[in-house]
Amino acid sequence: MVSRRDFIGKSALLAGSLSFLKFSNPLFAETLEKKTNRLTNMSPEESADDEDFWTWVRESYTLSSDIINLNAGGVSAQPKVVQDAHILNYQMCNQGPSYYMWQLLDKGREPLRAKLADLAGCDPEELAINRNATEGLNTVIFGLDLKKDDEVVLTKYDYPHMMTAWKQRERRDGIKLNWVDWDFPLENDDAIVKAYADKITSKTKVVHITHVINWVGQIMPARKIADMAHSKGCMVIVDGAHSFNHFDFKIPDTGADYFATSLHKWLGAPFGSGLLYIKKDKIKTVWALVGDDDSETDKADIRTFEWLGTRSFASELAIGNAVDFMGGIGLQRKEARLRYLKNYWVNKVKDNPKVKFSTSMLPAYSCAIASFSIDGWNGGDINSKLFDDKKIVATPIVYEKLNCVRVSPNIYNSTWQLDRLVDGIKAIAKTDPPPIVKKDGKK
Fold this sequence. Notes:
Among the domains are: 4-67 and 78-106 and 323-330, no CATH class; 333-429, Aspartate Aminotransferase, domain 1 (Alpha-Beta Complex). 41% of the residues lie in helices and 14% in strands. It contains 17 helices and 15 strands. The strands form four sheets. A seven-stranded mixed sheet has the order 2-10-9-8-5-3-4, with helices on both faces. Strands 11-12-15-14 form a four-stranded antiparallel sheet, with helices on one face. Strands 1-13 form a two-stranded parallel sheet. It is globular.
């Protein structure tokens, strides 16, 4: 157990927004600095295949040796320094919950807000800390004043929870949903923007954009779509669950009026952590899902959207450690590595005539994520066989026009793991698919 004096010292540091890395694990912080200093004169692309550095990064996690996790798009592992911070904060809270939670750790939210705002490129007064993208986007979807016959433009390949939320507003309030359909991959900005524009009418109030389509990793030209939507008088919501800290951009770059993301994906923050961005002049346009005193006034305060009652302060304050860790690596360097990993395995199977991709390989339209299919095979069967034969955890995608497997490596994955993926894909491509079993049990 850590002593009470150490707990108080640590909590004071957290409240002051000083990096936990340098205090909880100075040797690790020093090593991180030395490792990255060695790459200073390299471009991000040149450092992407420096396996000495990336092996060290991998060793900074507590990963299972039993499986190969290629589903970072779902949820990512946290670096050990983030886990350590979370555990220490949790132990601290349990020594005296009401005091340590509300008198000490709760004071760390404002420094954390400033740190996240710097990463996001926005004003701290535009950023609320919450639990995930679903919570943030639902706050906006259900909080906007929309009335019967108002229209919203969205696509059939937005995230399921967001489509469900909009359908609920459709049933409840009588709004109309105008759906854009896609045939992936997409590689023409003008055509993408036009597809949204064609669904906008004089009654359209909102355009909902998924920055990275979760099914296939398709990067959408969010700013171009947003500029077009704004020119027609529409508000813009951007779902950034799969884009934030995945590749290099700032939230205002998207043109979003409202933006939400999950920090437990590409940032590697504790599970159940996220943020909501609302452009300052739009804060008054959204009703909070959970009311507090400020929500009953005209005061425009982003903190209105953080009112949850008792929450996990231990988890929340450890977000800052994830920011420190990823900041030490550098976002441009991280992006280059993610692109390198995606290209590494794709290039080894792309010439196989049975392997098809639903993801563009052009840098503007994809980063870490790619989805593939194999002629004759169901995506679920491919995914199961990869796990049975290679212990690879990926994501089966059988939805709308897609029947494939999504592969999303992260910086803790190694090229040898991707070699196992390649071997598995090649082996499956040589194998007859399992027979299709009909509902009556016949093949």
